[in-house]
Amino acid sequence: MSVIALLDFIACLILFLTLIVLFFRNRIVLKRDIRILAGIIVFITLAYVFFMLLEWMNISHQLESVENIIGSSVPIMWAFFIYSFAQHELNETLTIHKENLRITLNSIGDAVIATDMNGRIIRMNPAAGVFTGTDPEKSLGKKIDDVLIILDPLSRKKISNPVKRVLETGKMNKIGQSILSRKDNREFYITDSAAPIYNEKKELCGVVLVFSDMTERYLQDEKVRQSEERYNLAVSVTKAGVWDWFIQEDKVILNERWAEIIGFSLVELEPISPAIWRNRVHPEDLIRLEELIESHFKGEIENVEAETRLKHKNGKWIWIMSRGMVVQRDHRGNPVRMTGTIVDITRQKNAEMDLKAQMDENLALNEEYAAQNEELTKSIERIKKINEELIEAKKAAEESYSLKSSFLANMSHEIRTPMNGIIGFSELLNDPNLPEEKRQHFSEIIIDSSHQLLNIVNDILDISRIETGKVSLIFEKVVINELINILFAFFEPQAANKKLKLTVSKPRKNEESVIITDRMRLRQILTNLINNAIKFTTKGEVKFGYKMEGNEVVFFVADTGIGIPQELHEKIFEPFRQADLDITNIYGGTGLGLTISQKFAELLGGRIWLESKPGNGSVFYFTVPNKTKYNKEIPETRKEKKIRKKTGNMVILVVEDDEVNYLFLETVLSKNNIQTVRALNGVEAVEICSKNEEINMVLMDIKLPLMNGYEATRRIKKLRPDLPIIAQTAYAMQEDKHKALQAGCDGYIPKPIITSDLFKLIESLKTKK
C-alpha cells in the first residue's frame, strides 16, 4: 500500500472517531471554539475524502497536488485537535474539582484556614469567618495571628499558633481542646489540628488549619462534672453507703463507705454479690424489704425507703435507712439496674428509745398524781396514748422539723396550762380546813381544765387519724336547720360572755334542709369555725349558716375579728400553723382546728376557703354535696332501746380491769343506790351474766385481758338478749362507737365519763322486769 493510501486510511479512521466523539459523547460540554475547530477539520477531511474518491474512481487527476497537500495536513490537524480536546477536558475536570472543593469547604461545619509559607491566609471558609468574627474575603493576605488568638483552657494564657509550629517542624500538629478568643470578647471551646501542604516536588508550601466548635459539648461535660461533684459531695456529707445493683445479672457494686458502715473494708467483703446484704439483713426486715422492692418493680410505688437492721462485724445489729429506685428498664419494662444508698441511723434510733424511756418515766410520775383525782387519771391515760402516737409519727415529721419544734413548744404550753390547774387545785383539795365554797370552786376549775386538756387530746388524735387515713365516715340523714339550732344554743352563751352578737341564716324550711352526710364530721367543722370566730373577735358579731347552690350546700361562718393577711390564706390550713404564726401567746390553741376542718371537708366531698383582710374580719366557706338519697347501702347503727324507768334498786355488772376506773364507777353508782358487781376480764363477765339473773345492766370496757369487750358482748347477748350493755371505753372516735353498737351494745359512752351523761343513758336503758 502506498503512503498516500495509508494516509487516506488514517484520515478516514480519524474522521470516524471524530464523529463518535461529537455525536456520542454528549456528556462532555465542549466550548464554542472547540466545536468550531472540530467542524472545520471535519469539513476539510470530508473534502479530502471526496477528492480521494474521485481519484479512486478514475474520474479526475487534476487536483492531485491539492489532494496531496490536504492529505498530508489532515493528520496534523486532527492531532492538534485531539491535543486541544484533551487539554480542554483536563481543565474542565480541574475546574469541577476546585468547585467541589469550594462547596465542600463552605458547607462543612468545621472551620478551615489555609496559609502560605509566610503564615499569611490564602483561603478561609465561611465557618472560619464565623468563629474568628472576620470576613473571609477581607482576611486573605493577613497574618494568621491577626485573626486567630488561641488560649490555654486552664491557665487562659495565649499559646503559640499551631500554623507556626507546622511551618517550623514540617509535621502535623494537634493541640486538643483549647479556647478561641475573638476581638469582641466572645470565646469558643475548640479542638484543632494543623497539617503541612506539599507541592508536586514534595516541598512545604503552606499549612491547612482545621478546628471544630466544642463549646456545647464542653458545657455539657461541665454540667456532668458539676453534677458528679455535687453527688460526691452529697454522699460525702451524708456519709452514705452507695450500692448499684444490676438485677438481671444479679451483680452489685458497693462503695467503700457501704462496707465501713457494717465494720468491714471492701476487700474483706470480696467477692462482692447481692448475697452480702441478704445474709446480713434481719430476717424480719428482709421479708418486708423484699415486698417493697417487688412493689417498686411493678411500678406500684415510686421508690423503696425502709428502716432495716444489718448485722455489724462485731455481731451487733445496727439500724440503717435504705433508699433506692430503678434507674434503667429494658424494652419490656423489666428492671435492669437499681441504685441507692444506706445511712447509719443507729444513734438516732437509740435516741428515740431513750426518749421513749424518758417519756415512760414521765408517765409513771403522772400516774402518781392520778390518785388525787379520778378525772385527772383518765386525762393522763389519754396523754400516754398520744405520746406513743407522737413517737410513731416522729419519722414522718423529720422533713418539717422546724415547724414541729414550734408545735411541740406550743403543745407543752397548752398541755401544762390545764395540768397546772388540775394538779395544783387537786393538792389544795387535800386541805381539810378548806371552806366548802372554795372546795366547790376548785373542783369546777379542775373539771374545766380537764375538759380543756381533753379537747387538746382530741384535736391531736383527729389529725393523727386523718394523716394515717384511718378516718371512717358514717352517712345518715341530717336536718341542717336542726344542727344549726343546736350549735346556736351551744355557742350563744360564749358569745354573750364576750358581748358579741351571734346570728344564724337558715334560708330553707326544715324538710327542705335534709341532706345525706356524716353528721359528726359536719358538726365538727362548724364547731371549729364558730369557735375560732368567737375566739378571734373582740367586738361586733359572728354569723353562720348555709345556702343551696346547685349540687352543693355552701356553709359559712363570718366574723368581725382581727382578719388574716392574704399571704397566710393557704398557710393557716397547714398542721400546727398557729404556733408558727406566733399568735398562740395571745389566743391559745393547738393550731389544728382549721387543718382538721379542711381534711373533713375534703373527706365529705367538698372544699374549704376563706375571704379576709387584716382588721376587716373573716368569712370561712366550705361545701358538702347536696345529696338527698343514699348512693349505696349504708349500714344503720343499732338503735338504742328505750326502756321504761323502773323503781327499786339496780345491780350493774362493771367490767373493768383498771382499779382506778372501777373505783370511780363504783363510787358514783353507789351514791345513787345502785349495787355493783365487778368482772376483771371478758371471760368473767360472760360467766357472771350466765349465772346471775339479778344483773340488770352491764358497763362493758372494750380493752380487756383474755377476751375483749366486743367478743364478751356478743356472747352475753346470745345468753341474755334483753340485758342492756353500755360500752364505756377510751376508744372515743365515731367509728369506735359504730363498732361497739355493731357488736351488740345498746349504748356507748366515751372516757373520761361525764357522770350526768352516764345516768341519762342508764335511765334510758333500764331493764324491764
Give a quick summary of the entry.
The protein is 50% helix and 20% strand. With 769 residues, it is α+β, with helices and mostly antiparallel strands. The strands form 5 sheets. The protein has a 6-stranded antiparallel beta sheet, sandwiched between helices.
Structure description:
- There is one protein chain.
- 50% of the residues lie in helices and 20% in strands.
- The N and C termini lie far apart (162 Å).
- It is of the alpha+beta class and 769 residues long.
- Helix 1 packs parallel to helix 3 and helix 23 (682-691) runs parallel beside helix 24.
- Strand 7 and strand 8 form a beta hairpin.
- The model is unreliable at 578-582 and 632-648 (pLDDT under 50).
- The protein is built from 26 helices and 23 strands.
* Average residue-wise pLDDT: 77
The gross shape turns out to be elongated
Radius of gyration: 50 Å
Q: Sheet bearing the most strands, described?
A: 6 strands, antiparallel
Strand residue percentage: 15-25%
Question: Characteristics of this structure?
Answer:
769 residues, 23 strands, alpha+beta
